[in-house]
Structures are given as C-alpha cells and as structure tokens.
C-alpha cells in the first residue's frame, strides 16, 4: 500500500514572505511602465502647457455645452487646454508584447512542470489500488 499523500506545510514566515513578495511584484509591475514613460510624459505636458498659454474655448474645439461642463468643474480655457491637448499614447510596443507573452508562457510551463509530480502522486493515491 502506498503512503497517503500529504502536501507540504508552509510556516508563517513563508506565508508572510510570499505575500509581501507578490505585493512587491504587483507594485513593481504597475510602477515600471510609469517610470519608463515619465520623461516622455513630462515633455508632452510641457509642450501642452506652452500651447495652453493663449487658449480659447474655440481654439480647443469645445462647444457651448462642453464649455459649460469645464466651467462647472472649475477650469478656465488655459487650465483645460493642458488636459485637452495632452493625448494618451495607446501604441503597443511589439518587443515588449513578445516579452510579456514569453514571461506568461514561461510561468505557465514552470508551474506545470513543478506541479506534475504532485498531481501524479495525488491521482495515484486516489485512483490506484
């Protein structure tokens, strides 16, 4: 008769370390793109601020309803121009996309490889007699 499978236990230190490590990874994955694009964003905002120096609602392409909404929010044409002229960049970098796909696929393969032995032990315990 085969010994009954019992999963390895993890101590409280290991659980706290794992939780903090995952938290740091999530934070880093969210901050790195912001830090990489911070310089380009600063240049974009600076050029938008220069363009906003003598802005009017008409030059910004805002109709009467839009003007009223900006005013309700407490913005004058110069303040609103910085927000209106600062366009978001939704371009996708193919190299970074390939790296992201490779990391996700690598993690998936790693998890399957590491778990393969444990899955087989559990299945053997439950179904082999």
What does this structure look like?
The protein has 129 residues and is an all-alpha fold. The protein folds into two domains: 11-89, no CATH class; 92-129. Helices cover 71% and strands 0% of the residues. It has four helices and no strands. The protein has helices at residues 12-51, 64-72, 77-85, 94-127. Helix 1 (12-51) crosses helix 3 (77-85). The N and C termini lie close together (8 Å). The mean pLDDT is 84.
Question: Which labels suit this protein?
Answer:
single chain; 129 residues; mainly alpha; 2 domains; 4 helices; 71% helix; elongated
Are there runs of 5+ residues with pLDDT below 50, and where?
A: none
Q: Please give the domain count.
A: 2
> Would you list the SSEs in sequence order as H and E?
HHHH
SS field, number of helical segments = 4
Helical amount: over 70%
Radius of gyration: 27 Å
End-to-end CA span: 8 Å
User: Rough shape?
Assistant: elongated
User: What's the story with the biggest beta sheet?
Assistant: none
By DSSP, the count of extended strands is: 0
**Beta-strand content bin:** under 5%
Brief rundown of the structure:
The protein has 129 residues and is mainly α.
Question: How is the topology of this model organized?
Answer:
Elements: H1 12-51, H2 64-72, H3 77-85, H4 94-127
Helix pairs in contact: 1-3
